[in-house]
Description:
By secondary structure, the chain is an alpha+beta fold. It has 2 domains: 2-63; 66-144. 40% of the residues lie in helices and 37% in strands. The protein is built from 2 helices and 6 strands, in the order H-H-E-E-E-E-E-E. The chain has helices at residues 2-26, 31-63, and strands at 66-80, 83-90, 96-100, 109-121, 127-133, 140-144. The protein has a 6-stranded antiparallel β-sheet with strand order 3-2-1-4-5-6. A hairpin with a 5-residue loop joins strand 2 and strand 3 (96-100). The longest helix has 33 residues, at 31-63. It is elongated, with a radius of gyration of 21 Å.
Amino acid sequence: MFYFMLITGIVLTLLAVILFGFMLVKKNFGLLHIVKFTGALLLGVIGVFSLVFTLPSLKYIILQEYDVIGGDCTIDITSSGRATEVTLEMLDTGDAFIFFGIPALDAYGKSIPYYCEVIVTQDHEFEIGYKIYDVSSRELIFTGK
């Protein structure tokens, strides 16, 4: 998800700059030109917002400086259409981490506790991976990214 947002931000920002460059050269102020200007402005705003959100975490991703958050958790599965999300909710802190794909576990739900370790960037903005353990024996059950 991080790389998708970063690449989208770069592409949209560059596309907006190129469109603004073409508009400044032509200097035509018709209705089509105003629509293009508005579209380029919107692309630029979305691109810059995406970059502002992802660039602070880029150094943690490149240097692989991650934090591991561990504790008892519950696992919820949400599926809509083709997409399935796994929400790991830490019972100690109340933090929720979302991943894609379904882990191969016997049971899910808020009433079934597990011990989870979630790997996140140091600023806790992006999830990298997770490990699910049995709550009593601490035996590794599943590892996901």
